[in-house]
Amino acid sequence: MNRINILDSQNFTNQEYYVDLIKAENDRFETLTGKKKSYLITTFGCQMNEHDSENLSGIMQDMGYIEADSQEEADIIVYNTCAVRENAEDRFFGNIGALKNLKKQNPDKILATCGCMMQQDEVVDEILAKYRHVDLIFGTHNIYKFPELLYTYISQEDKKTVSDVWKIDGDVIEGLPSIRRYDFKSFVNIMYGCNNFCTYCIVPYTRGRERSRLPKDIIKEIELLAKSGVKEITLLGQNVNSYGNNFEEKYTFPMLLKDIDKIDGIQRVRFMTSHPKDISIELIDSFVELNKLCESLHLPVQSGSNSILQKMNRNYTRQDYLKKIEAIKSKVPDIALTTDIIVGFPGETDQDFKDTLDLVKQVEYDLAFTFLYSPRPGTKAAVMTDQVPEEVKKERFNQLLETVNEIAARKNKAYLGKIEEVLVEGLSKNNDQILSGRNRKNKLINFAGDKSKIGQIVNVKITATKSFSLDGVEVD
Ligand code: 5AD
Ligand code: SF4
C-alpha cells in the first residue's frame, strides 16, 4: 500500500476541519482502549469506482481509521456501488440485507453506501424504506464530503440516516488523499462523466456531464506517483478521446499522452475507455511515437449490426469501426485489441447477432467482455418495446462466449516461445508459489519466482498458453 497527497489542493481543504475533529475523536478512543477504529470498503463495478474507493480509503486513513480484515471487525462498512447492470444491484441489496443482524448486534457500527446506484432516486427510496440500518448515503459527486457527512451522522443524538446525493455534476475536486492497492501501478482519473447517452447506459445519469481535469494537475499527480515508485499508470475516463473538449485552448488527449511520456520513472502508460467514434489519427500515431504507451487498446464495439448500433446511439457504423481497426492494425500490427459487447439489446434479430459474431471473427480480439443486455430504468432502451426474451439472450451469449474464447486461445498460442516483459503484480490467485503479472499488451502471465520480484519488470519466456493467461519461466 502506498499513499499520495496532492499538495496544492483547493477544494478538499474545507473538509480538513471535519477530518481533524474525527481524527481527534479516534485518537482519544485509541488512548482509552489501545485499539484503532477501522473501516472496510466493498467495491462493485469499474475502475472508476475502484479509484473512488482508493480516495475514500485515503480520507479514512487521514481520519485515523485503519483497514479492517472483515465486516465483523470494521467500525465503518462502506459499499461503493455500480448501476451499470442489474445483477450488481441485486448483489448489493443482498449484501446490505445480510448486514442487518450485524448492525443489530453492534449498533455503533456505521454502514455507508455510495457510488452510482445512489444517484438513482428509486434506490435511495428503497434503502430508506427497507434497509433502515444504513446510516450514510452519498453519491458520485460528493465523495470528497465524506468527513463532513460522517461527522454530521456521528454528532446526532438520535442517529438518523444521513443522505446527501447531488443531482448536478460536482466540480473537479483536486487534492483528495488516496490509498493505492499497488505500490508500482496506479489509476489516474483524467476526466469525469460522459456526454454520449448510449441508450442502454446509466452512466451519464449517475456520473454527470464530461469534465476534464487540468493537464497540470494530472501531470503533477503522475510526477508524484513516479517519485513514490509507480512504474505503470492507467488513465481513466468514460471517453478519454474527448479529453479537453471543454478547454478554451486546444489541448487534446494525444497531447496529454505526449506530455506524460516525458515523465521520468513512469515506464508504462495505459488508458481506458475510448469511444470508437472519437479515435483519431493522432491517437493511433501516439502508439507508434510514444515509447511508454503500451500496445493494447480497449475499443468497445457493443454490436456488429448497424441497426442495433443506431438504436444504441453509438454514432458509428460497423464499417466505420472496422476501418478504424484496420488503420490501427496497419500502424501497430502487434497491438492487443479488447472490446465490450452487449447481447440481446432490444430488437436484436438473429441476423443482427450473426453480424456481431462475424465482426468478432474479423477483428480477432485478444479478449472481449460480453454482457447480457440489462434494462436500466431511466434509459431510453429500457422502454423500447421489442425486448429480447431471456432464453434467446442467453443462447446468443453462450455462442458469443464460445467464439470469443476460441479466438482468445488462438491469439495466445502465438506467444509460445516468445520472451515477454512482465511487470510482476503479486502471487497468482490460484497458487501462492507462482508469481503473476502483465506484459505491455496486458496479458496475464504466470511463472515461478521469488516474491521479492513483485513490482519489478522481468523477462519471462512463454512455455504454455491458455484462453485467459500465459505460463512461462523467468529468463535473463
Ligand atoms: N446492459 C448490459 N451491458 C451494459 N453495459 C453498459 N450498460 C449496459 C446494460 N444496460 C456494458 C457496455 C459497457 C460496459 C462497461 O458495460 O458494454 O461498455
Ligand atoms: Fe455509457 Fe456510452 Fe458513456 Fe460509455 S460512452 S459511459 S457506454 S453512455
UniProtKB/TrEMBL annotation:
The entry's keywords: 4Fe-4S, Cytoplasm, Iron, Iron-sulfur, Metal-binding, S-adenosyl-L-methionine, Transferase, tRNA processing
For this protein, what does the record note about how its cofactor is bound? Binds 2 [4Fe-4S] clusters. One cluster is coordinated with 3 cysteines and an exchangeable S-adenosyl-L-methionine.
Cofactor dependence: [4Fe-4S] cluster
What are the Radical SAM core domain coordinates in residue numbering?
A: 180-410
Its Enzyme Commission number?
2.8.4.3
Where located? Cytoplasm
According to its record, what are the GO cellular component terms? cytosol
Which InterPro entries does its entry note? Elp3/MiaA/NifB-like_rSAM, Methylthiotransferase, Methylthiotransferase_CS, Methylthiotransferase_N, Methylthiotransferase_N_sf, MiaB_methiolase, rSAM, rSAM_horseshoe
Pfam families according to UniProt: Radical_SAM, TRAM, UPF0004
- Domain MTTase N-terminal stretches: 37-155
Q: What class of enzyme is it?
A: transferase
A GO molecular-function descriptor? metal ion binding
Q: Which domain of life is it from?
A: Bacteria
Its predominant location is cytoplasm
**Domain TRAM, residue spans:** 413-476
Q: What does this protein do?
A: Catalyzes the methylthiolation of N6-(dimethylallyl)adenosine (i(6)A), leading to the formation of 2-methylthio-N6-(dimethylallyl)adenosine (ms(2)i(6)A) at position 37 in tRNAs that read codons beginning with uridine.
Q: Which family does the UniProt entry place this protein in?
A: Belongs to the methylthiotransferase family. MiaB subfamily.
Assembly and interactions?
A: Monomer.
This protein is called: tRNA-2-methylthio-N(6)-dimethylallyladenosine synthase
